[in-house]
Write a structure and sequence with these properties.
single chain; five-stranded mixed beta sheet; four-stranded antiparallel beta sheet; disordered N terminus
């Protein structure tokens, strides 16, 4: 049985910038060495009707060649989330630590761009935080977006919330 390098990389989950549940909707060139700002639509897998747009820097080939750091992209990102359709709440965490909605590799092995969702029950608001997670040196660079659910018709899935909205 033959195992390819791509199969090993896929099995280990260390794909080079392969988006999970995201769709590229924009790409802006920022200089002559091929650096770009990518904009992706990220759909929350547990909440229908909410879409986040995530923007981040993607280094080009010539920039990597000139700086010698082949396998790493900057930690900068920006996020904006909005209601884009009827909202249905699925199996979401109500804890203060929230849960991961999206993750994408920003270096060959250790750095990940992450989007976490937190439900602020008191203010009836979804909070989305984009940040970079690293094994040893976490980054203080982050971006936050909130989706207030006041004035929005929200259904709480009977499958997960038989008593409706949690109080």
């Amino acid at each position: 049985m033959k195992i390819t390098v791509c199969a090993i990389i896929a099995a280990l989950g260390i794909g080079i910038s392969t988006p999970i549940m995201a769709e590229e909707v924009g790409k802006i060139g920022v200089d002559w060495v091929g650096n770009d700002i990518l904009i992706e639509a990220v759909h929350d897998h547990e909440i229908e009707g909410v879409t986040c747009h995530l923007a981040y820097f993607d280094r080009g080939f010539f920039d990597r060649l000139s700086k010698g750091n082949w396998f790493e992209d900057p930690s900068n990102s920006s996020i904006a989330c909005r209601v884009t359709g009827p909202v249905t709440m699925g199996d979401i965490s109500l804890g203060k630590g929230g849960e991961e909605v999206f993750k994408e590799g920003r270096s060959f092995l250790w750095k990940k761009l992450v989007v976490k969702r937190i439900y602020d029950k008191t203010n009836n608001t979804l909070i989305y935080l984009s940040h970079t997670r690293e094994v040893a040196d976490g980054s203080a660079k982050m971006s936050i977006s909130t989706v207030p659910l006041y004035g929005v018709e929200v259904s709480w899935s009977d499958k997960y919330w038989p008593n409706g909205k949690p109080e």
